[in-house]
Amino acid sequence: MNSKRSLQGMEIRKIGSNRGRPRLWIEGAVASRACFLPGMKISVTLDEEKCMLTLEANESGERVVSKKTVRDRDVPVVDINSENLLGIFVRMGLTAVRLVVQLHRIFVLPIASEVRAKERLDRLKSKLENNEPLLMGSFSSGIGILDRAAHTGFEEAGIRTRLAVANEIRLDCIEHAVERNPVFDGQTILLTAPMQEVVFDNWVMSQLPKLDGLAIGIPCSGASNAGRTKRKLEFPESHPDVGHLVVPFLAAVAQTSPSFVAIECVPGWLNTASAAIARSMLRDLGYVVHETVLNAADWNMLEHRERMCIIAVTQGIEFSFDLVDRPERRARRLGEIMEAVALDDKCWSPLTYLKEKQLRDEAAGKGFKMTIVNEDSPKVPTLNKTLHKRQSTGTFFQHPENPDLLRIPTLVEHARCKGVWEDMVEGVTQTFGHETCGQAVSVPPFVSVFNALGRALQAFKQATSISFSSFVRADMVAA
Predict the structure, then answer these.
(1) Dihedral (Cα; 338, 342, 347, 350), 10-degree rounding
(2) How far apart are CA 361 and CA 367, in angstroms?
(3) Residue 291 and residue 307: Cα distance in Å, rounded?
(4) Which backbone phi and psi does 111 adopt, to 5 degrees?
(5) The whole model's pTM is what?
(6) Residue 363: how many CB atoms within 10 A of its CB?
(7) Which of left, alpha, beta for 467 (phi over 0: left; psi -120 to 50: alpha)?
(8) In the chain, where are the structural domains located?
(9) Cα 479 from Cα 213, distance rounded (Å)
(10) Could you name the active-site residues (predicted)?
(11) Residue 91 φ/ψ region, left for φ over 0, alpha for ψ in the -120 to 50 degree band, beta for the rest
(12) Which of 436, 351, 346, 336 is closest to 394 using CA atoms?
């Protein structure tokens, strides 16, 4: 590298106004690092195609570096007050620009996050207009239930998608997804490793395509009430395994530059420091953040699971959770989804040890108790990933003839309670099936969300133009 042309500095500076024309005032450290000295001649060149203004020391230059005196010291000043030179930035809606400094040269450019936002919108619009599949990325994929919900919702809205990248730490989940989940195909890049190992592996990330959308189910072990209680966590981020994963997630967003991002987790995650960091960082990366809590009861699901949902869209895409459709409410009975289990099947049990434990817990003033439901029950409690363990706080189906006999839900019944596709739980063990379903979203609410997002993308496709929309905060800009 030629050291004379190496990077000397970078600064974000506000575009001002003087006499009705845009004004860029460059003084102090930026001008000094470029070795622009008072009285030196410089040329100013505008490259509209690159959206770049170049200030360069030039003996035949038409401008002269001026000065002002600060504490008996002459400080170099470059004052550009021109519609012809700066109007291109103003017409883009920019209120600030990026100054990149080399020796004897200063480049004036849009802020990098603005450039990325414009690039991803251009890419998105081109794909939508040409009916090309949008490339989706998935982190903490599990067996891809959220990914399949996204694909289904988009498909209903007339948007083609393809799962380009999937990251999951568990090999068994990835292998099952490849075998059973139709959104995983032969071209899906499988990243079976901790998210942080993937995201901070420069070579791996350099091999990934730019994504159009990214979905993640943030692991909830730290943010859930049960997880915090079990580990006696002072705050969710102190969970040693998953409390820090907002960091690699945001790094993944920055590096793959998707046009939209979807996040799901337990509702309590919205009140964590991780969520606050995610909101601010996504904003600074050029996204508008929308958030809500989805209750599966609004989609007539038997399991009334609540899940928070964040949809972050690049500025220029108009989205609102008001666009999400819900079905007409109707009463449900558990018998609608129950499998025909033989009355003498060995899965039926009196579970005497759990009943005795419940009596001891009640006597000790503890709140642990089983939930017993039958075919007439209008709903079931949240079915979690440890359902297969037959715990004292578990959910059990009651025998239709002998009320003393109980069983846990079958894998198919668990899937039906969440709206999960039954083919995704075929041929697996109870442990694996209940774990993966227990950590999954209720599918219909998320299909509706992605359908609404798909319709928002269709509306974006019809927009006549794309422009920058500056989102730079005052504390990011040099005075």
Answers:
(1) 100
(2) 7
(3) 11
(4) -65, 140
(5) 0.88
(6) 8
(7) beta
(8) 3-110, 116-331+437-462, 340-409
(9) 36
(10) 220
(11) alpha
(12) 351
- CATH, domain 116-331+437-462, list 1.20.1070.10, 3.40.50.150, 3.30.70.120, 3.40.50.2300: 3.40.50.150
* Cβ atoms 466, 169 nearer than 8 A: no
Give the separation between CA 444 and CA 461, rounded to whole angstroms: 26
Q: Taking the C-alpha atoms of 238, 240, 242 and 247 in order, what is their torsion angle to the nearest 10 degrees?
A: 70
Please list the pLDDT of the chain residue by residue as tens digits (479 residues).
Answer: 344 578 899 999 999 999 999 999 998 888 999 999 999 999 999 999 899 999 999 999 999 999 888 887 888 999 999 999 999 999 888 889 999 999 999 999 999 988 899 899 999 999 999 999 999 999 999 999 999 999 999 999 999 999 999 999 999 999 999 999 999 999 999 999 999 999 999 999 999 999 999 999 987 554 555 555 555 656 667 666 676 889 999 999 999 999 999 999 999 999 999 999 999 999 999 999 999 999 999 999 999 999 999 999 999 999 999 999 999 999 999 999 999 999 999 999 999 999 989 899 888 888 788 899 999 999 999 898 888 888 888 899 999 999 999 999 999 999 999 999 999 999 999 999 999 999 899 999 999 999 999 999 999 999 866 666 566 666 666 65
- The tokens describing 414, both together, are 């668990």
**Catalytic-role residue among 220, 265, 417, 437:** 220
Q: What is the phi/psi pair of residue 236, to 5°?
A: -55, -35
What does the block give as tokens for 397?
A: 């189906």
CA distance 256 to 413: 38
CA distance 184 to 161: 11
The first and second tokens of residue 110, run together, are 């849009």
309 part of the active site: no
Q: Which of 394, 386, 445, 391 is nearest to 418 (CA)?
A: 445
Quote the tokens at residue 213.
């959308």
List of residues 6+ apart from 55 with CB closer than 8 A: 26, 34, 36, 42, 43, 44, 78, 105, 106, 107, 108
